[in-house]
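Re: weekly structure request thread

Next one in the queue (165 aa):
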Amino acid sequence: MSKTTINIGEYFFEYDETRGIITNSHGKNISADVEKISNGEFSVLVDGKSFHIFFSKTQNSPNATVNNFIFEIQRETLRDKLNKKLSKESGNNNSSITVKAPMPGLISKVLLAEGASVNSGDGVLIVEAMKMENEIKTLRSGVLKKIFVTEKQTVEKNDQLFTIE
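Done, posted below.
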């Protein structure tokens, strides 16, 4: 199952690529007919309305041009949602967060060392699960205070991986 959440401006939509269903921010399922025109360009028919969508990336962020209106977009996959859910954040931004394993697997590589400065989205380690490598990224900027795992160590879902302060 492949679901993607797309934030366009103040609206968000969840697109189930396998079923061709879009769920809007009100939880209403919308049947969508999506046709790829070219790389990054789509024609979408939703409830009898046609939309021409072109995805592009500027220096700062990806954009979606929908019927000649440009929107900054944020794409969030199920893995991103799970990582956010499994990370534990207390009170304020000055506190530490602990990122937990989103799935069982093997730590194939630790990319950074304790004490390293990190930016939001930096990769810290790689978990191999079901013959796929999954890069576990930071959820915010800070200092990598503690790494709880080592290379070649097996982890279970929800095991602590690292802490950022």
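Residues 88-93 have pLDDT under 50 and may be disordered. Helices lie at 78-86.
Next request, please.
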